[in-house]
Write a structure and sequence with these properties.
Elements: H1 3-11, H2 19-22, H3 30-35, E1 39-40, E2 43-51, H4 61-67, E3 79-90, E4 96-106, E5 112-116, E6 148-152, H5 170-196, E7 202-208, H6 210-221, E8 228-232, H7 238-255, H8 272-286, H9 323-334, H10 357-363, H11 375-388, H12 406-417, H13 425-429, E9 433-439, H14 447-459, E10 469-474, H15 491-501, E11 507-510, E12 520-523, E13 529-531, E14 543-545
Parallel strand pairs: 5-6, 5-7, 7-8, 8-9, 9-10
Antiparallel strand pairs: 1-2, 2-3, 3-4, 4-6, 11-12, 13-14
Helix pairs in contact: 1-5, 5-6, 7-9, 7-11, 7-12
Length: 546
């Protein structure tokens, strides 16, 4: 128990837990209601309610759109629901701020704690049920498995998880970047002790997207607090990714056809038919390189796609890309550069998921007017201008950005926000383990960028990271699920077995709605899945990782 946790419990009068809190499975109602009376310096409980078994989690589609997390539909077990706030204050411009959280404490507790990551710019408290943060996941949420689960808005209250107005406040920037993780972890662990009379045996963090970045942040900034980390599609270089998004929007706007009012229609820079043509060409060149032509590039390192196959030949107007569009697409996939030829962000892999709805939602959108609705176009101006740039820029116009100066303009936030660190010695010293997964067709954060980070992680740790950190690439998968992919797998079970039983995951067995009846092994990077040449082509058992 840390000094800070002891102080919180002592202030609340719970350092020596009374009998009501001592039982491992306390009676419903009484003990839960008692937690609502806790008050200490910086902590205010606003709700303490016993939730009966069978209750369904609240629907929150607007939040899930950015977190990428599957919304669990399973009925919840009996549990104590705690909501509260930490460090309430008046911030820049007189705006109120606080670090708000939700903690769910199951009656049948398994002795484990899970911090559930958020998504987007946070600003909302998601339902703390610990759903597997992959859109296709069918595995039960952590709460249903007996975990105590906490979630947070990361220190600011937004209109939704796209609201970046908090970037005008210094402390709010710090809380979103990393500080809220430590604050909420301390409070949650103290409340767990108050509820059950003892500390959690094991602590985990699981999230995708910005929640994946936060998961890596938990291991880098709070290495002694967590035993197991699951980081999905992590925006670990979020400042550079946002810069790259802005660059892509400018490129696509330049080739987009115009609406009647003269404004570019971003969604039609590349039509669905054109992107389908792209993926068909990629599959034509690369699908069979893993030993089986099946619509999945399970060995992406073997795909050296030549986009010249897409170029319209003289007189050709169909089943090809005109020169301007081909040039734009290639420049996007190779990654934007500044005037010095240095990458603004990263290259992107050619993969089977480039024509999917998830890829389009981020890059292009569907709006047939001059008002774009892609996440790049709607999220980037506020997140880049108000949060990543210092000083903040109100109403940032992407077309006006000087990309030569942008790295310097985003450096201050990058220093507190981006999880590019490779030193995990304190985390590993107490047996910490980290499992990272990423969609190879992720349109938000480049799989190429994560692979480059992983190579640096290995280089900075004498090439020996497999004993405590493993990366699993998911062919065809978009951002936290979706796409032509096997995006139904269970990383929570895998990390728990690794932490508690020493069973390091060599593969994650995955299935997906896009390929009914099919299973595939997701191999620990740099290994990839190859068909053995015999056996059921729909079965993971017919593939080998090498």
């Amino acid at each position: 128990m840390t000094h800070k946790t002891m102080l919180l419990l002592a202030t609340a009068g719970l350092l020596a837990a009374p009998a009501a809190f001592a039982a491992e499975t306390p009676p419903a109602g009484g003990a839960c209601a008692a937690l609502g009376k806790i008050a200490s310096d910086g902590l205010r409980i606003t709700r303490a309610e016993a939730i009966p078994a069978g209750t369904l989690p609240a629907d929150n589609p607007a939040r899930a759109a950015l977190t990428g997390a599957a919304r669990a539909s399973a009925a919840l077990p009996a549990h104590c629901l705690i909501e509260g706030s930490l460090d309430e204050r008046q911030g820049t411009g007189g705006k109120p701020y606080a670090v708000k959280f939700q903690l769910r404490l199951p009656e049948n507790w398994n002795g484990r704690f899970l911090f559930q990551g958020g998504g987007g710019m946070d600003g909302v408290v998601n339902e703390a049920i610990g759903a597997i943060p992959v859109a296709g996941a069918t595995a039960p949420p952590a709460l249903n498995r007996g975990f105590a689960v906490v979630s947070t808005d990361s220190g600011h209250q937004g209109r939704d998880s796209r609201d970046a107005d908090f970037g005008l406040d210094q402390q709010a920037r710090l809380d979103y970047a990393y500080a809220a993780i430590g604050k909420v972890t301390e409070a949650a662990k103290a409340l767990i002790i108050a509820r059950y009379g003892r500390a959690a045996d094991r602590s985990y963090f699981m999230g995708c997207s910005n929640g994946g970045r936060a998961a890596m942040m938990a291991a880098q900034r709070f290495p002694d607090e967590f035993d197991g980390i699951v980081a999905g599609n992590p925006g670990f270089r979020l400042s550079r990714a946002a810069s790259g998004h802005a660059w892509d929007v400018n490129v696509m706007t330049g080739i987009a056809p115009r609406a009647e009012d003269g404004r570019p229609v971003l969604a039609n820079a590349f039509t669905p038919a054109e992107m389908k043509l792209v993926t068909e060409a990629v599959l034509q060149q690369c699908d069979a390189k893993d030993g089986l032509k099946d619509g999945l590039l399970t060995a992406p390192s073997t795909c050296h796609f030549d986009p010249a196959a897409l170029r319209c030949q003289p007189g050709q107007t169909e089943a090809c890309l005109p020169e301007a569009k081909l040039t734009a697409l290639v420049s996007i996939m190779e990654g934007g550069t500044d005037s010095r030829g240095e990458h603004i962000y990263s290259s992107w892999p050619w993969d089977a998921g480039l024509a999917s709805a998830g890829w389009r939602a981020w890059k292009l959108g569907t709006s047939q007017t001059g008002q774009p609705n892609s996440l790049y176009a709607t999220l980037t101006p506020s997140s880049l201008g108000l949060y990543f740039m210092t000083p903040p820029v109100q109403n940032l116009q992407l077309a006006t950005i000087d990309f030569d100066k942008l790295p310097a303009r985003t450096a201050q936030t990058a220093a507190i926000n981006d999880t590019t660190g490779t030193m995990y010695t304190s985390f590993t010293a107490h047996g910490g383990r980290m499992l990272v997964f990423h969609g190879n067709s992720d349109p938000a954060f480049s799989a190429d960028d994560l692979r480059a980070y992983w190579k640096q992680l290995q280089a900075d740790n004498d090439g020996d990271t497999a004993t405590w950190a493993r990366l699993f690439m998911v062919p065809g998968m978009n951002h936290c699920g979706g796409g032509p992919a096997t995006d139904d797998f269970d990383p929570l079970t895998a990390i728990q077995a690794w932490v508690e039983k020493g069973e390091a995951p060599a593969t994650l067995i995955a299935k997906g709605a896009s390929f009914p009846g099919r299973t595939r092994p997701l191999c620990a990077y740099p290994q990839e899945a190859y068909y053995k040449g015999e056996g059921d082509p729909e079965s993971a058992a017919s593939f080998v990782c090498r």
